[in-house]
């Protein structure tokens, strides 16, 4: 039965004829010469069938052309290519350029929204923006100030525009949107300002709201059904969120949704994660704080919750659970399974059945992880699916105003927003990771709307007793739950990976290097110093029969916040400034696109 | 006798043993693998002996590495290379980076001055900076706010710092300094704010003032000697400046000194030009307005004036006379002459004897030039050395509040700050030019210290009845006074040229292309789209035995002021915004270094 469904899904994707799915997205993402949504495809695999650039010739790569975005600070996400046009976005003020690939990157149109710069003050982790999406002839952009705008992809004309949140209470946006069916899904940032997380679906045709699903609160506002929404194989039960909070704390309890969406057109389910519970001081919010830190599977048409899995109940370390969920089909124990693979901030990589939400594998993807010994995998256990927390590293057990030291990973996790990629050819996941530990001292904090609601002082440093660097780029086997190879990096790898059919994997470094490595062995095959630190995601496209690789440079994001915001106090930038101080020896602010090609 | 002197000078340059010259500058600029001062050498030839990159292989050029400066807006000037270190500067706030060429451009030190951003309001033509100079182990920088600072070249430590002007009365700096002897020479900007131009020499050892020479005013303040300072072969006479102004207008009469310095170590003379008389409304300042618009030759030790030549007496078009004076030795009529070649804003290229100030050639270097028919070359004539002004294009004769139309060139001249280069191999000058005309309507304006003192409304457009573009890149024969070849460009060529012993000439375009052309024929051999419009000056260096080409991108300057300052009204930016409006279809603000190499 599963096999049959799976084949059907594949057929639907190939023909682009799914009754549920947005035909445009399926059609456009199926063309390997294009890159139509930020995640590459609905499955978030960030894999390309293009194979002109191979492990044999990638060493000859050279820069084809470049483009300055005219904006500094952290450049996350990457360009899209639809037909002959490349779409490039910037951090705040979220400018968009349409570049003519047939005419030396000439600017066909530019969209330069006027946004109140006050919003910058309520963005936790730099003015980043993970980019626009394409669907049905529209470029859809979700600005920092939570304006959602749909532009005519050919002319840049604004088709419709709608406000999705309120920056006055700390609601902002940094995430890309996901067009699914006849809707577009958007999240909200603000876990450090006590927002109440949710995702909202807007109708692609006119921007009217279709449905909204909160991360916390009453069942009906979460679109949860006590009987049919599942949690680790059991019905979730009534008031599952309300029961896990003290009083009304859930109303300012975070669970924001600033990560990535994936979508299975066959199951018609969307997947995404929720962020940290607010505040960072765990003593102020006893309970599991559901459904923060949770992978959510929802019906794309109605938003109804199919299943939830909370990775870090009662978070004590800011391990937001928003990282991308990569959808792959793989044999496990002789059976083909529809899988979802998630590399969580908390340092565990989860392999789940994406139809049922069954937990199959949960293993550390960095040996430095020490806050928990393991995830309880025994379905009969009281603590099934929960991490086994080590008391020494429990900031809740150690209590307010106590500095818990040596916790690994640091708050920015073993992996943060930087998306991994998956190669169906090697069957491996390629994961940009952080190798950073922290000291964490929670303190009592009062909530004021629109003001930081953090409640902890942090400092960060490279994982001790290791290679001295703050990152690794790893290859991961999601069935075995094992690292295949690991490349040490001086700084966290804060850029998204790309795997290609040429058996090459690309990623960028905070110093600014674009690197290409052998997909099998991890051997470095190419390295080029781009203008600024890379926190963007590498993509590839083909134009006039030639394959190109493109990436945005522009140091920033949480890891680069010291440079981006000009901070020097080690504890500033939510504790990231000190750990990454040496970055200023390597790079400066930027905002550039670099496009690579093979010589003719 | 002239022959003898000339050979002696060459010998002195080669041995670096001149009693007058700064040995460090002579030694460092004599090494072809380096680029020690902005002009390449004291002669301002912008020529390099490096010849690995040739007209045969330049087509294979590729990007070696890149660096983002972290600053947007117009990037003029270029990097220096001394030993293994490259020095990169930025526009306001005039940051400086020392990059390790032996370690992937790692940042050895950075200098990030804190300047009052108020100074930006009194910079006429973008926040540009034409770069730092090296001498005696010091990096010398002259900031926008007229702070002159000497840094230890190895550590970035501030050795001394001195204030050279007062931004409160519109005095700013955009020019590079010139180290000569045991001094460093600096100019001042502010012709559009009624400053009184001068150059000042500071002692390299401690920054104390050595001498100061005004462009206008009493003889003693100009360091002019009525008997020994010459003007076209005659003693200049007493009160030569005071006699040429009405009342005290000379005190707010401009003649600023924001261009380039050159130096002949044999003659021990420095050469530079003075800018427009203030205001732009000629009716407010009857007379020749001496010594605005003048090439000046001064003794490097004392500042004493040797000779002056005023190219545009009583300017009516803002044709600042500050362009670089290129020193070459050439045979004219069978005799070796020490020449000075100047491509003036007014559209005439002057070839002079640099020892005596004799005028040898004055010819139009753009056929579009129409404001004057010719320069009177008859030594017996009353108007010897003066341009023959065409009444139709005389904004003074047409008078206040009359729009004089169709004047060629526009105020930004046939060439502005963008320096030309000279190849001793071809004997040709390579000149980045503007091909722009204007309408000019003067109006009465009152002087208020620190406020714009312009008094004219301008609009600019491509030279009519020509190729439709706004620029040409030309090769010039300075003895014949003839264009050898001319390459049409869509926009003004606002970047400095570089000629090399590989018979290749490099220049950048406002769209962002770095171009390489054949030094003999002008044939385009290579073109690459850098991140942003190029107004920087291409340079070359050798490291570890390999030749590199480097250039700063970052659109701006007067031509790019619309993009740089976000102006859209066609008459804004002193009239430049309208003419260059189409630039926004090609490029965005930037600030990047791109370094090129041949494949191994
Ligand atoms: O809780 C939130 O709402 C929220 C938002 C964001 C964001 O919007 O970028 C980040 C985080 N949290 C966060 O915890 C985090 O590590 C982080 C890193 C980055 C980044 O782009 O580098 N953003 C964010
Ligand atoms: O009169 C002056 O003091 C003054 C200063 C400057 C400057 O400092 O850049 C320019 C000019 N004038 C000027 O006339 C001009 O065309 C110009 C162009 C540029 C440039 O860098 O693009 N600067 C200046």
Automatic annotation (TrEMBL), chains A, B:
Cofactor remark from the record: Binds 1 PQQ group per subunit. Binds 1 Ca(2+) ion per subunit.
Transmembrane region(s): none
CDD domains listed in its UniProt record: PQQ_MDH
Cofactor dependency: pyrroloquinoline quinone; Ca(2+)
One cellular component (GO) term of this entry: membrane
Sequence positions that bind pyrroloquinoline quinone: 76, 130, 174
Residues that hold Ca(2+) according to the record: 192, 276, 318
InterPro entries listed in its UniProt record: PQQ_b-propeller_rpt (IPR018391), PQQ_MeOH/EtOH_DH (IPR017512), PQQ_rpt_dom (IPR002372), Quinoprotein_ADH-like_sf (IPR011047), Quinoprotein_DH_CS (IPR001479)
Keywords: Calcium, Disulfide bond, Metal-binding, Oxidoreductase, PQQ, Signal
Superkingdom to which the source organism belongs: Bacteria
Residue span, Pyrrolo-quinoline quinone repeat domain: 35-361, 492-549
One Gene Ontology MF term: oxidoreductase activity, acting on CH-OH group of donors
Protein name: PQQ-dependent dehydrogenase, methanol/ethanol family
Organism: Paracoccus gahaiensis
